[in-house]
Every structure is written in structure tokens, then in C-alpha cells.
Amino acid sequence: MQVKKPVKVTKDRRNGSFASNCLLCMSQPIVMHLACILLRLSMPEALVAATLNAAASLGKSDTQGSLEIGKLADMVVIDAPRYSWNI
Fold it and tell me: Band of the pLDDT at 23, cuts 50, 70, 90?
């Protein structure tokens, strides 16, 4: 995707909106997948759009948005043979 401005990809969390009541829109991996399909982002572009660019749009890229020493992070490491979810 050829853009001149950073793209942000995120799920909708506003109460009462259609997307907040849609189970598919509650999953960040599905939103990133849709960005790849509908916006023709590559997987690395979708990852940056959902993490670093999203943090930058909120003015928090200096403390959040990527895994770096000194930045805040909430993460889970799972030792599993494969990752899948059921909707």
C-alpha cells in the first residue's frame, strides 16, 4: 500500500456502536486480517498499523506501541504447538 501518512488499524470499543456488539470486531487479529484483505496491507504493515502507529496516534509512541527496553507492555507468552481460536 502506497501511503504518505501512517495508517492505524484498531478495533472499535465504543459502547453502543454496532462494532462493539459484533464479536468479529472484538478480535484484534481479525481486524488486522481484514486490513490485509480490504486495505491490501502486508502482514508487517498491519502489525505496525495496529501497534506503533496506533500508539503514535494517541501520542504514546514514546512509552507504548513496540517491544523495547523502557516501554510499557502487556503480553502473554504461550508455549503451544499451534494457535487457533473458535468463534
Answer: low
Rounded mean pLDDT, 11-35 = 67
Count the Cβ atoms, other than its own, within 10 Å of residue 32: 20
Scan for cell 487457533, then name that residue. 84
56 domain residue, yes or no? yes
- Which residues form the domain of 28? 7-62
2 within a domain of the structure (yes/no): no
| pLDDT at residue 27 greater than cutoff 60 | yes
Beta strands in 1-87 (DSSP E): none
Residue 17 has pLDDT above 80, yes or no: no
CB 22 within 8 A of CB 11: no
C-alpha cell at 30: 481479525
pTM of the model: 0.68
Number of structural domains (the chain) is 1
